[in-house]
Amino acid sequence: MRRKIVAGNWKMNIEHAEGKELINDILSGLSNVEESKQVIICPPFIHLQQAAELVHGTSHVSIGAQNCYTEASGAYTGEVSAAMIKSTGAGSVILGHSERREYFNESNEMLAQKVNIALENGLQVIFCCGEAKEIREAGTQNSFVEGQIKDSLFHLSAEQMANVVVAYEPIWAIGTGLTASSDQAQDMHAHIRSVLAAKYGQELANNTSILYGGSCKPTNAAELFACPDVDGGLIGGASLKAADFQGIIAAM
Ligand code: PGA
């Protein structure tokens, strides 16, 4: 069964004590999250254990990291492994965010390795894809996103793919206030689903959650989430304010 998901990506924001406050504020305003839905909060690494403890016992609310390293352990100063993330109580990891691709040179091939190690360690992967403005203007966004998905995910078995959520985040919409129209989002999400169906079959494609990300707010979330192939959102800026994040969760 395909789940509706709202995931919050705090990026490099919020210090330790404020993190506790923000999670408590989010939880206090949250009514029961139904079985068919999932709320995932993805703070920086320093929050993971505390955050996992805070949401423990709240059904269908869990914690995710924003990145992991390609290797299992060893002399990689400053990096954090998938097993370490799992050991904090977190259940998910965002991989392939456009900021990591751009500022940290993460290639599709490197992301394939990260996806592997995350899945091997029992983490759900939120795999981000999306095109830059120039690609959208050239009209080649569908083949571009298809390439990202093929290069980083298509080596997976169907069983592994069942633990992958796709997040479509057009780069021109991230943090810019420009949101994809619901038609643009629906077109791309339907395309992504057809790409998954061609490789893994229609049933797996139908069961895969495909999230939209990019300037999603309480004011536009309901319209975006009403699209048949948009199964929720990956939320940046609006996940840093409890009321906004709750508004988006309510829209799901
Ligand atoms: P935004 O970020 O909601 O601030 O546009 C989304 C994201 O980068 O995940």
Describe it.
The mean pLDDT is 97. Among the domains are: 20-33 and 45-61, no CATH class; 62-70 and 77-205, TIM Barrel (Alpha-Beta Barrel), CATH 3.20.20. By secondary structure, it is of the alpha/beta class. It is 44% helix and 16% strand.
Helix/strand layout:
Elements: E1 4-9, H1 16-28, E2 37-42, H2 48-55, E3 61-65, H3 82-87, E4 92-95, H4 98-103, H5 108-120, E5 124-129, H6 133-138, H7 141-153, H8 158-161, E6 164-168, H9 182-200, H10 202-207, E7 210-213, H11 218-225, E8 232-235, H12 242-251
Parallel strand pairs: 1-2, 1-8, 2-3, 3-4, 4-5, 5-6, 6-7, 7-8
The protein binds 2-phosphoglycolic acid (PGA).
2-phosphoglycolic acid is lined by residues 9, 169, 174-175, 213-216, 234-238.
Number of H/I helices: 12
Classified in CATH, the superfamily of the domain at 62-70 and 77-205 is: Aldolase class I
Helix content estimate: 40-55%
Number of strands: 8
Please tell me what the overall shape is. globular
Secondary-structure element series = EHEHEHEHHEHHHEHHEHEH
CATH C-level class of the domain at 62-70 and 77-205 is: Alpha Beta
What's the CATH architecture of the domain at 62-70 and 77-205?
Alpha-Beta Barrel
Q: Which topology of the domain at 62-70 and 77-205 does CATH recognise? A: TIM Barrel
Structural class computed from helices and strand pairing? alpha/beta
Ends distance: 16 Å
Mind summarizing the main beta sheet?
8 strands, parallel, barrel
Strand content: 15-25%
Could you say which small molecules are bound to this protein? 2-phosphoglycolic acid
Main sheet: strand order: 1-2-3-4-5-6-7-8
Average per-residue pLDDT, rounded, comes to: 97
Computed over alpha carbons, the radius of gyration is: 17 Å
